């Protein structure tokens, strides 16, 4: 059994390539069906976000699987084959698992420890399940990935440290006010940074939003976004008294908020606390404001220091997350290796059951009319003999499945016990394939899995 992943992300391909390889939600059903129509692919999932497109697949042959998926991406996007090969990466077996687990944990994201990607991995998997594109191997792989993503966040706290300027402002506000519920914010300037900071504050409980900008139309537009109100720019100092938090980010070349304005606003409320965040360069708020009792002032350098410190915390957490990932990779790889011998184990147990039933029928026929109790005793004895006889070879085969000699012992077992019915099927061209799973593709075509690779047992033992 082989798992592979082919993809591009923000580190390997420019946006003009990524956008051509991306999949919309509406295109996923047809894309998954077309992939499943390829005999080499037994199950698959497509993850498509703004920063990555990745196809994970359980395949019968690694090289053929990689070639098939790259060809699929070429026809889908119109990008030349040479460019597809240049920009896409390919992982196989345990490297596929490790890559997916790192993606789910947020370690492969543009923003280290990003939370959103885990939800995107989960959604991609559930969509593939809904369209019946997954199989046992893909299901197990993605369940491990989702487990890793959850553990990485709960056990390391990798997503609990703000690493953006706008969210760092929220983190500082929480340190001052503890609970932001019901607090009000005065936003000076209607640019992107002001908008992002206000958005994070509102998401954390701030309810009153006042916006002031030189262009009153833009102020009204931003205020509507948060259910707030716009005030004229030359009157903003009148609203300082009503604000718990002030965010300022304008293009002014002089101080927009003066110390005298703040002093006047706080005079009627000597015990009032106010937090002021100056994100502008040049600064909007007179540094002298920070010396006024009750006022806490942060500038862009203060926020950047918070971001830098938090990024270091995330890097420490990432090291812990890598340990969780390796643990889960080992567990998945062991499970995957074990699947290789399961058809042989099943065939061996089936053979033992057939022999037991045949000999039981023969013995009971010779014994004639015996009691039900005696029949049960004989049956129990026969079951115990078969189970004890097969226990050691089955256990040893499962142990060897985790070693490089696993395939040899598997085939030796099949030869020694004459297991000709290890769930094999014969294809129309006369070649024998292992039928570990059979599925129906888009056009109703039966598809078989991994080809049987018989080692020369006789040659090895000669």
UniProtKB/TrEMBL annotation:
Residue intervals of the Glutamyl-tRNA reductase N-terminal domain: 6-156
Pathway: Porphyrin-containing compound metabolism; protoporphyrin-IX biosynthesis; 5-aminolevulinate from L-glutamyl-tRNA(Glu): step 1/2
Entries under PANTHER family matching the protein: GLUTAMYL-TRNA REDUCTASE (PTHR43013:SF1)
UniProt-annotated stretches for the region Disordered: 435-462
Domain Tetrapyrrole biosynthesis glutamyl-tRNA reductase dimerisation: 321-419
Family membership noted in the UniProt record: Belongs to the glutamyl-tRNA reductase family.
UniProt-listed Pfam families: GlutR_dimer (PF00745), GlutR_N (PF05201), Shikimate_DH (PF01488)
Binding site for substrate: 49-52, 109, 114-116, 120
Residues the record marks as active site: 50 (nucleophile)
Uppermost EC category: oxidoreductase
Catalytic activity: (S)-4-amino-5-oxopentanoate + tRNA(Glu) + NADP(+) = L-glutamyl-tRNA(Glu) + NADPH + H(+)
Comment text on domains: Possesses an unusual extended V-shaped dimeric structure with each monomer consisting of three distinct domains arranged along a curved 'spinal' alpha-helix. The N-terminal catalytic domain specifically recognizes the glutamate moiety of the substrate. The second domain is the NADPH-binding domain, and the third C-terminal domain is responsible for dimerization.
UniProt site positions, description: Important for activity: 99
Molecular-function GO term, any one: NADP binding
Keyword presence, Oxidoreductase: yes
Protein's job: Catalyzes the NADPH-dependent reduction of glutamyl-tRNA(Glu) to glutamate 1-semialdehyde (GSA).
Annotated residues for binding of NADP(+): 189-194
Domain of life of the native organism: Bacteria
Annotated keywords: NADP, Oxidoreductase, Porphyrin biosynthesis
Keyword Transmembrane part of the UniProt annotation: no
Quinate/shikimate 5-dehydrogenase/glutamyl-tRNA reductase domain residues: 171-306
Species of the source: Desulfallas thermosapovorans DSM 6562
Enzyme Commission number(s) from the entry: 1.2.1.70
Protein name: Glutamyl-tRNA reductase
A biological process term (GO) from this entry: protoporphyrinogen IX biosynthetic process from glutamate
Record's miscellaneous remark: During catalysis, the active site Cys acts as a nucleophile attacking the alpha-carbonyl group of tRNA-bound glutamate with the formation of a thioester intermediate between enzyme and glutamate, and the concomitant release of tRNA(Glu). The thioester intermediate is finally reduced by direct hydride transfer from NADPH, to form the product GSA.
Record InterPro entries: 4pyrrol_synth_GluRdtase (IPR000343), 4pyrrol_synth_GluRdtase_dimer (IPR015896), 4pyrrol_synth_GluRdtase_N (IPR015895), GluRdtase_CS (IPR018214), GluRdtase_dimer_dom_sf (IPR036453), GluRdtase_N_sf (IPR036343), NAD(P)-bd_dom_sf (IPR036291), Shikm_DH/Glu-tRNA_Rdtase (IPR006151)
């Amino acid at each position: 059994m082989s798992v592979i992943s082919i993809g591009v992300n923000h580190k390997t391909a420019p946006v003009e390539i990524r956008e051509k390889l991306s999949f919309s939600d509406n295109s996923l059903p047809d894309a998954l069906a077309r992939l499943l129509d390829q005999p080499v692919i037994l199950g698959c999932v497509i993850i498509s976000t703004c920063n990555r497109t990745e196809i994970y697949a359980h395949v019968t042959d690694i090289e053929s699987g990689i070639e098939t998926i790259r060809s699929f991406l070429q026809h889908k996007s119109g990008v030349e084959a040479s460019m597809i090969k240049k920009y896409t990466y390919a992982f196989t077996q345990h490297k596929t698992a490790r890559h997916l687990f790192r993606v789910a944990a947020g370690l492969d994201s543009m923003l280290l420890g990003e939370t959103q990607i885990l939800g995107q991995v989960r959604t991609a998997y559930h969509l593939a399940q809904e369209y019946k594109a997954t199989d046992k191997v893909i299901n197990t792989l993605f369940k491990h990935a989702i487990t890793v993503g959850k553990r990485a966040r709960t056990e390391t706290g990798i997503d609990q440290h703000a690493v953006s300027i706008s969210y760092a402002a929220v983190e500082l506000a929480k340190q001052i006010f503890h609970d932001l519920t019901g607090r009000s914010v005065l936003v000076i300037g209607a640019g992107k940074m002001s908008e992002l900071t206000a958005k994070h504050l509102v998401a954390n409980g701030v309810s009153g939003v006042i916006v002031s900008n030189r262009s009153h139309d833009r102020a009204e537009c931003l205020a509507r976004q948060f259910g707030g109100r716009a005030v004229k720019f030359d009157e903003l100092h009148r609203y300082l008294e009503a604000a718990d938090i002030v965010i300022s980010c304008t293009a002014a070349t002089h101080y927009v908020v003066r110390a005298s304005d703040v002093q006047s606003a706080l005079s009627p409320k000597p015990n009032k606390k106010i937090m002021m965040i100056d994100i502008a360069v040049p600064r909007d708020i007179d540094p002298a404001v920070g010396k006024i009792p009750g006022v806490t002032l942060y500038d862009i350098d203060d926020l950047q220091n918070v971001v830098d410190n938090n990024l270091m915390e995330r890097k420490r957490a990432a090291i812990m997350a890598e340990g969780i990932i390796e643990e889960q990779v080992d567990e998945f790889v062991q499970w995957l290796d074990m699947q290789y011998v399961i058809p042989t184990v099943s065939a061996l147990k089936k053979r033992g059951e057939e022999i037991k039933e045949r000999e039981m029928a023969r013995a009971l026929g010779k014994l004639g009319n015996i009691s039900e109790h005696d029949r049960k005793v004989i049956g129990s004895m026969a079951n115990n003999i078969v189970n004890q006889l097969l226990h050691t070879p089955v256990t040893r085969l499962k142990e060897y499945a985790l070693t490089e000699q696993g395939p040899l012992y598997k085939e030796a077992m099949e030869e020694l016990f004459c297991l000709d019915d290890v769930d094999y099927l014969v294809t129309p061209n006369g070649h024998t394939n292992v039928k570990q799973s059979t599925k129906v593709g888009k056009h109703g075509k039966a598809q078989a899995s991994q080809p049987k690779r018989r080692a020369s047992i006789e040659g090895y033992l000669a």
